[in-house]
Amino acid sequence: MSNNIIALLPDHVANQIAAGEVVQRPASVVKELLENSVDAGATSIKLIIKDAGKSLIQVIDNGKGMSPFDARMCFERHATSKISKADDLWALTTKGFRGEALASIAAVAQVELKSKQEHEVVGQHIIIEGSKFVSQTECQAPTGTSFIVKNLFFNITARRNFLKNDQVEQKHIIDEFERLVLPHCDVHFTLISNGNEILNLPPGSLIQRIKLLYGNYMQKDLVPVSENTSFLKMGGYVSLPDAAVKTRKEQFIFINNRFIKNPFLNHAVYEAYKELIGYQSHPKFFLFLELDPKHIDINIHPTKTEIKFTDEKSVYMLLLSVVKRALGKANVAPSLDFESSITSDLVTSDKVYAQPKVSYNPDYNPFKSQGSNNGPDLQKANKQNWESLFSGFKQTVENETAAEKQEQHVIETLKSESVDYSVFQLNFKYIVTSFDRNVVIIDQQRAHERVLYEHYLNTRSENKISSQQLLFPEQLELSANDFSLIRDLKDEFKMLGFDIEEFGKNSIVINGAPADLQDISVIQTLEGILETFKLNTIDAKIEKHDNLCRAIAKNTCIKYGKALDEQELKLIVNHIVKCENPLYTANGKPVMMEVELNDIEKFFKK
Q1: What φ, ψ does residue 4 adopt, rounded to 5°?
Q2: Is position 400 within any domain?
Q3: Single pTM value for the model
Q4: What's the CATH number where 126 sits?
Q5: pLDDT for 368-398, tens place per residue?
Q6: Which in 23, 424, 433, 515 has the greatest CB count within 10 A?
Q7: What distance in Å separates the CA atoms of residue 488 and residue 232, rounded to the nearest whole number?
């Protein structure tokens, strides 16, 4: 009996293991196939998906196609046309080079390939299922390649079960699609999902492509960036500080037309916006950097989104200075105008300047003071009483429990006392009222947000909110991801009083809004709701209806700085005390505080 236990894995097992890194979800397949089409020199690429890529992913291009031998060889591991020797890794001009993608995809899906070269009469049709070669036949096909991937992870049930819902998977596909179409504006791209055309991007300039992807409104928010040095070329756009948003979307850095993720370079962009944007606000940027391939290493990870530089500090400083200069030209960053002439009132020839006089006390001695003799006694007293400095920080668990009970007592008392509250507004932010000789201070924005949140949250158990039809319906252009999100939330929006209809590709019409919302901009409110919804999705896993109620409440509540009359103040107080949890917002921020009369008496030493 042999003692040897180490064996060479079969090819199909090795391919499935490699697929674990290369093919993580349908978006990974889309990325690899689109990159192959670009490398093939295609000028027209069509992506067709069904069920967010779980059932079907098809990429059709008009590239140079493959010969019968290449069509079969491309499914072998480490088979590639991009490089032939190790030195080629330092002169890469293509997106792919590892030769792993097609073998990994064929290991976990049912694959069909049709490809024909321009000088060939017929094309090649190859079928592979789970790394098992099924057939290779001749077929009629146009010049180029059609790659069909069906039933992804059909042979790995556990991986298929870990896929998210269709909306999430389609979002990842659109993200990968955007990352590839932005640097290749000379290529016609089309995206079709479940028979619906999501994006149709004809060849054009970069700003035209950005507008087609994210809406025409983007152009007014962007500032051009340009630089050309012997080491680095840079171009693209960055957003004005006023256009900063709460989520990290529309942030792209490309190195030699390859999308990369590099926190160091991202930090350079944020440093350029320092003191120009608010806390937790994020700029938008589309930056394209060109370097000699010998100065970068992209062979870090199979996804090819990580990169290393031979001189990372120089790239950082150049990026920082170029973005700062672009913002300065747009008059949003502090800058000096060296070309402006000096005005005559600053410098005049007939003005006589007197010598400045300095006055001082010749008897002043900094080491002598009237209270210097008391120094040692004072220090001694302070050392003896040092424990009293920390007395205010000693709060036991019992005290915390008592404080919570006291807060609950405040609410119960306010609920039970059907009195006409004496209220006033403080600094256009707070509502001040009293009960039982104590003072209660209520945050007006958070209180109204809590009231609206519970109001919308109860629409499931109660009747849906009535909608007020707009006199003039408003149209809103959205990005592909936001349009998909609106589609998914359409029933929820309708339940909450928003009458929304699809209006062409990636565009909606708002016919009505909740009847209880007045004096608001419907477009800005809906955009804010989408941003807040996505932000909540990132921070925590919140149920869809709950998340939408939080987003609507946050964007439609009374804001700080709004003057309220006495009746409005009393109405907020009456509503907040009737909430199920009036002490905190849905995100856990405090709504009110109590100042006891005893504390006031102690402060005034009575």
Answers
A1: -75, 125
A2: no
A3: 0.72
A4: 3.30.565.10
A5: 655 445 555 545 555 555 555 555 555 554 5
A6: 23
A7: 43
